Amino acid sequence: MLRVYIDTSVIGGCLDEEFSPWSNILFEEFRAGLKIPVVSDITMQEIEMAPLEVQKVVESVSDKLESVLLDREAAVLAKAYLDEKIITDKYLLDAQHIALASIEKVDVLVSWNFKHIVNLNRIRLYNSVNLKKGYALIDIRSPREVINEEI
Fold it and tell me: Which CATH class is domain 2-146?
């Protein structure tokens, strides 16, 4: 079964007019047990500060969630992305999401963050660091590319 690392943008996307069709289908697939949602402690901390409606989206799949924790290994890999100047220190959380997904060997990381995460040039750079550091390539997509159903 496909393990899908989701960041906060995907969860919030369920309530966003532009992204809701695809985020909601992805969450329907999680609820149906077709895919496994993987969330980090970073994401959960962000969700705790989000509006109640966003928190309810996560609660709707709480029995399906696989949780992963930011540890030293992920922090070091995230720092390597910063050291390679793929993104700046200001976007450390984005680097940590990618590092966690890489280390946890998820099948795909999904995000609506097209500037720092779902960006072909950056994906290539993240993967070059992963290979240099002995990690597998990470597949990064938008929810629209991961869902099974057509809209």
Answer: alpha beta
